[in-house]
């Protein structure tokens, strides 16, 4: 079954914490609903405990903070937070995330494994909610790599890297053409052929 790696940004309270420490990685080890909120277990390092406690207390939507474990190298804590929109989008589309999720500079990064219909429904939910996300990669699509020529593989990887398939789109066909030093119509034809192979392999793997 296909697996997608996504970067998702929301207005969730932990994002605020992450943006205060943009060079620090937070690992969300688990999350479960309780009392109308979402209870989240988080692991981090490189932050001193007093500074972390101060930062957590300054975010009013983070409540019921509990420090579960603390050493010089690792802090494990739990917090309650309002249910973020991406979590609702996952529930509505039947997608279950694979923990841990990384939280880096305000972006949740993680893998989801789902059917073609579920992944499509999840992206529709994200688009409908105006939730910013980037598709990092899709794997587990048997035969897709073998079907692509080296040139198609190069162009597809460049398109993914520079956000051509993101929502909102971060580059255009013209941008890709400039980077490849070719005409825009050439890039369009290469991507169309590559996408046909990928979509066919994707559907076959579901």
UniProtKB/TrEMBL annotation:
Keyword Lyase: no
Pfam families in alphabetical order: BAT, HTH_10
Record-linked SUPFAM superfamilies: Sigma3 and sigma4 domains of RNA polymerase sigma factors (SSF88659)
InterPro entries found in the cross-reference section: BAT_GAF/HTH-assoc (IPR031803), HTH_bacterioopsin (IPR007050), RNA_pol_sigma_r3/r4-like (IPR013324)
The HTH bat-type domain, residue ranges: 148-199
Keywords associated with the record: Transcription, Transcription regulation
Domain Bacterioopsin transcriptional activator GAF and HTH associated: 10-97
Protein name (record): Helix-turn-helix domain-containing protein
């Amino acid at each position: 079954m296909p697996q997608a790696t996504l970067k998702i940004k929301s207005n969730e309270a932990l994002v605020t914490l992450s943006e205060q420490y943009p060079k620090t990685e937070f690992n969300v080890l688990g999350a479960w609903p309780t009392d109308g909120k979402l209870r989240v277990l988080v692991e981090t390092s490189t932050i001193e405990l007093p500074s972390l406690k101060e930062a957590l207390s300054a975010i009013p939507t983070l409540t019921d903070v509990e420090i579960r474990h603390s050493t010089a190298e690792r802090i494990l804590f739990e917090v309650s937070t309002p249910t973020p929109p991406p979590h609702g989008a996952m529930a509505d589309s039947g997608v279950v995330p694979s923990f841990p999720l990384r939280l880096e500079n305000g972006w949740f990064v993680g893998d989801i494994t789902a059917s073609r219909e579920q992944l499509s429904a999840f992206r529709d939910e994200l688009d409908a909610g105006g939730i910013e996300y980037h598709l990092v990669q899709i794997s587990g699509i048997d035969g897709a790599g073998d079907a692509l020529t080296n040139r198609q593989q190069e162009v597809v990887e460049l398109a993914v890297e520079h956000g051509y398939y993101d929502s909102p789109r971060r580059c255009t066909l013209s941008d890709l053409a400039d980077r490849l030093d070719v005409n825009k119509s050439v890039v369009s034809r290469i991507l169309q052929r590559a996408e046909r192979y990928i979509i066919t392999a994707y559907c076959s793997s579901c």
